[in-house]
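Sample entry (289 residues):
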Amino acid sequence: MDTRIKGAGTALVTPFTKDGIVDLPALRRIVRHNLDGGIDFLCVLGTTAETPTLTSDEQMVVRRTVLDEVSGAVPLILGFGGNNTALMVESLKAGGFDGFDALLVVTPFYNKPNQEGLYQHYRTLAGVSPKPIFIYNVPGRTGVNIFPETVARLADDCPSIVGIKEASGNIEQIRKVISTCPEGFVVLSGDDALTCEIMAAGGQGVISVASNIFPSQVAEVVHSEGQEALKANERIEKYFGPLFQEGNPVGIKALLSVKGFCENCLRLPLVPASDALVELFKNDCNGND
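Predicted structure, serialized as tokens:
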């Protein structure tokens, strides 16, 4: 099963008004900014979108708004996850994924399954999914790391599992995923700071947080090679530390606010960036590039 999900992708935030309502005009601004900046695809309702804090109705409104604003201009990948395999199967069978090109399925959280459990979970979902699946490995959030051997096994056994967003932060593990998975399996960086290194190792792109505000710069990094990619990365890498020092999407929302795209508002249990971080973006980083 082929997929168009590769290159420079953005993990979209969900903007909120000061009253805590989903800010659809701001969401459209950010989507348009990314389209105009040459981004290759968008990730909707992932971790950066604060999806667990959105109601089902809000999630549907976000989906419809992005679909309408994009109007087929770029591929879309939809965040999808849970730690109840049977319930996820029911959701997949129910459908409702029209307009999306693939699903980004995070490893089960809290349960902490072993590698065989992870294999059986993804294999079960792959058997019923109406869309190609990308594994999302982010052990810092889920408490479980899917090993390269398990990823390769799934890639070999399940044609609908077409790639992985690797956010383990372990470059040696990521290199092993790239080297052991079959040709055509798409490995995407899940960490802005590692994109150049992953691309140099054979990765095919990134699902970026920084590209919410820097789409053209992230696209340049991904679309360049060698020294040109490193030079492009140098122009934005000073932001990578500050963007994540108080957690994601705390940093990116602060910077988006400084740049005038949306309010610096999050939903509990997340809180807005500290005054010090906001001042850092305003002063040291100048709020622009």
